[in-house]
Amino acid sequence: MLDTQSIQAIQCIVGEKNLLYDPARIKAYNCDAYTAEKAEPTAVVFPETTEQVSLLVQYFYQHGIAFLPRGAGTGLSGGATPTHHEVIINLVKMDKILSIDYENHRAVVQPGFVNLHLTQKIASHGFYYAPDPSSQSVCTIGGNVAENSGGSHCLKYGVTTNHVVAVKCVLPTGRIVELGENFGDAVGYDLLGVVVGSEGTLGIVTEITVKILKKPESVKTLLALFDRVEDASDTVSALIRHGIIPAACEMMDKLTLYAVDKSHYRVGYPSDIEAVLLIEVDGLEAGVDDVAAEVMNVCTAHHVRTVKLAANDAERDLWWKSRKMAFPAIGRISNDYLVQDGVIPRSQLTHVLETIAALSQQFGLRVANVFHAGDGNLHPLICYDARNPEELARAVMLGQQILELCVDVGGSITGEHGVGIEKIQQMAYMYNELDLNAQSRLRQIFDPLGLCNPGKILPTPQSCGDRPTRHGVVSIPSSL
Amino acid sequence: MLDTQSIQAIQCIVGEKNLLYDPARIKAYNCDAYTAEKAEPTAVVFPETTEQVSLLVQYFYQHGIAFLPRGAGTGLSGGATPTHHEVIINLVKMDKILSIDYENHRAVVQPGFVNLHLTQKIASHGFYYAPDPSSQSVCTIGGNVAENSGGSHCLKYGVTTNHVVAVKCVLPTGRIVELGENFGDAVGYDLLGVVVGSEGTLGIVTEITVKILKKPESVKTLLALFDRVEDASDTVSALIRHGIIPAACEMMDKLTLYAVDKSHYRVGYPSDIEAVLLIEVDGLEAGVDDVAAEVMNVCTAHHVRTVKLAANDAERDLWWKSRKMAFPAIGRISNDYLVQDGVIPRSQLTHVLETIAALSQQFGLRVANVFHAGDGNLHPLICYDARNPEELARAVMLGQQILELCVDVGGSITGEHGVGIEKIQQMAYMYNELDLNAQSRLRQIFDPLGLCNPGKILPTPQSCGDRPTRHGVVSIPSSL
């Protein structure tokens, strides 16, 4: 609970209407889309300018008050969950587009600007913004910067860090800095690259300059149905081996198909199909038809049952809706589900999917697989019933085993959802103490008092191997 | 000069044959390819393993001896010049390829491995390594990592940082760490991204895991001759506007054409041509012909005099040799030249080229322009005669004005050559004190004693605006 002096100071900065501290009204901010852990914030404040953010943060820093930034709250790893009674700095009112430069392919937006709105705003000029997380219709570009969000089309076009060229950022001490270059690569050390994906722990981004891309002249979307998961996996590797970089290459397995066909976006997949690939190729009108034909040939060489081109935009939209709404669709076949997010070498796809199937049997929990196959970025969805605490615990344990499997085959514990609080234990599985110390030291330069989104990403020493102690502080070793 | 104890200690680590300290034999290491400043090293040591590098660095750190890493010495900004009597750690003996994984598109090399040798080694399997600096036949991949090197084909494929997925690195304190992920993006803070492009100031990279790419099925190369520089510039913007991302898009101006046609690689450009574009498109056989035809249409719409496709590999090779050897070719028309390396928004190409022409007049020095036009990465070559010290000073001043012009139009002072010692003054033109402090603080975590390639990249406080004091130390402010 804030004291009266702090309430007055904050109101003085942002105005009375922009501070919430009534416990009933701030309860909605006790987690983001990672709902397995919840905790109450102290207050929620809605700044409207960079200067207000800076003044707020200066006040918090002078008074030892922990804080964290929040966008739309769609994060999947708990990055915006106030585990340390933080004041939440909600950026939804900073939702303007500041400038668009079509000639040089740049746009400047505030952090609360919704991802999809950017593409909608510039579409009439033939442009779009490439990173497209499934939540793009509601998630904010500020949140995308924090999590270095990916999306279906990141196989060809890269993730958020490849599209952000500069930011204005309020450091945890309250100073305002500009990082990155509008044109050209980093000069000196790449501090922008460190801030992108830092999950709101190194400062609060208040202006973002992104690349906007010319819409491809032509897009062809194919749907390929396979009798065996292995054939679908081999097709993905073979496409890349043939030098084809699809704009997107998504896989869904049998359980996912069953769920999505129960949703509003019913495609009508045959019930005995084991895996579907949704493949998109794009480029100039001239060449795309031939590339699509090559994709079909590769599918045929890998025993596809059927493969077809979307007949029109309506069919293409339906296929994509079916894919993008796959997570919520799982809600139709299971009370609850945990979304995992691991990365593996493409060559390990078949092995890892078989092992997940075996783990699913062993744990007695269904697992649906839907993922960015081209990138080897898996999203196993573990079905469970939260009303049974033992089943929740089993689901969490299965999720951890899947992540450790990803690390064991040479992969990583997160493709695009971040570490947050969800995967903090796996950081110690993936990294040794030295690696983690290096990251802690970096964090300490930005945030010497440990007040900016504390307890996220890096395990505290006592938490390595155990359940992390939420109130520990990040350890600062004396040197690298 | 090293004392006897240090000589024995170093010999103990690397063997007698791997240490040079005779002044006559180490003189060759007094600069890299930025020859405007020279300084003698204390010794040159040739480690053969990561462990040797680590032991050396530990010894240097314990004894307060400054050191710096060196690859092939082709750097253009003085990053390997021993301005602080450093011991040079020469990595040429660490020149092995450690593993190749064709299935997952990865190769692991030592830092002394030559860039072009990687493509040659994997070519028979249909693969290549994308970053292609003009010096690729001699420069090392370790040096490319230090400088985040670009190249002609980086417009479509990205620079070194986009192709390095992981490194083994000896920190300035001697500890060995692994940074990055073989698969998937950075987990936690992107420390790999900070090390790539850090110009040998944050440690010594001893193993590098890079992406290798499948060779495009088909490549078409076009040569377009223009009567006006403006038309060539507009063509570049128009290509990108049409959604065409050429694999390469290089421009050479009249003076450059004159020089290259005097070289061994004579194309026979008409003497009244003002600008040439060398444009390459690649991809699947199926579509490339059509894309090349579109490129021709865009050139025609912008008043090209002639545009033609390379008739065969021999013609293509000649065109590329003529471009890649453009820097040395300037040596045929001028005793000496300074290569600059600025980045500008593509939309400013015409304005900046006109301003450079006016500055050239004003300073009474010829400037040849050859550059990666698609990226807006300029390489003005300032012709001068070093036998006349006043002319050298004038050339340096002209170079600085060109860099400041790049910053003024919204660009940056380096595209791919790094800051080194050459552009250390312009860092203070581009960044304010706060920005520079943030970079200093980052450096200090890696190198608390300031012994690893000191005096590079960051100006010392007293040097901002003045000529940098070579023996100053990097200032460490108490907080961000």
UniProtKB/TrEMBL annotation, chains A, B:
<protein>
    <submittedName>
        <fullName>Glycolate oxidase</fullName>
    </submittedName>
</protein>
<keyword id="KW-0560">Oxidoreductase</keyword>
<dbReference type="InterPro" id="IPR016166">
    <property type="entry name" value="FAD-bd_PCMH"/>
</dbReference>
<feature type="domain" description="FAD-binding PCMH-type">
    <location>
        <begin position="37"/>
        <end position="215"/>
    </location>
</feature>
<dbReference type="Pfam" id="PF02913">
    <property type="entry name" value="FAD-oxidase_C"/>
</dbReference>
<dbReference type="Pfam" id="PF01565">
    <property type="entry name" value="FAD_binding_4"/>
</dbReference>
<dbReference type="InterPro" id="IPR004113">
    <property type="entry name" value="FAD-bd_oxidored_4_C"/>
</dbReference>
<dbReference type="InterPro" id="IPR016164">
    <property type="entry name" value="FAD-linked_Oxase-like_C"/>
</dbReference>
<dbReference type="InterPro" id="IPR051914">
    <property type="entry name" value="FAD-linked_OxidoTrans_Type4"/>
</dbReference>
<keyword id="KW-0285">Flavoprotein</keyword>
<dbReference type="InterPro" id="IPR016169">
    <property type="entry name" value="FAD-bd_PCMH_sub2"/>
</dbReference>
<keyword id="KW-0274">FAD</keyword>
<dbReference type="GO" id="GO:0071949">
    <property type="term" value="F:FAD binding"/>
</dbReference>
<dbReference type="InterPro" id="IPR006094">
    <property type="entry name" value="Oxid_FAD_bind_N"/>
</dbReference>
<dbReference type="GO" id="GO:0016491">
    <property type="term" value="F:oxidoreductase activity"/>
</dbReference>
<dbReference type="InterPro" id="IPR036318">
    <property type="entry name" value="FAD-bd_PCMH-like_sf"/>
</dbReference>
<dbReference type="InterPro" id="IPR016171">
    <property type="entry name" value="Vanillyl_alc_oxidase_C-sub2"/>
</dbReference>
